[in-house]
Amino acid sequence: NGGQHAEAAQILAEAIALSPQNANLHYERALTWAQANKLESAVADYDQAIAIRPDFVEAINNRAAILAQLK
Length: 71
Known about the structure:
Blueprint: H1 2-18, H2 23-35, H3 39-52, H4 57-70
């Protein structure tokens, strides 16, 4: 539900603040945003994950799928 997504996003934001170069944390928060239908936020976090780890295939694929939905 929305409350759980918001709580998860907050926990992940705190983790990202402690470890901003951890691509997996950005990826996990992107998944959380996508599940909450906050697609622009999801794309932003996928962008961060990919910037940190350019070969992050799952992030690249998920980002492309969301961008296709937004068109």
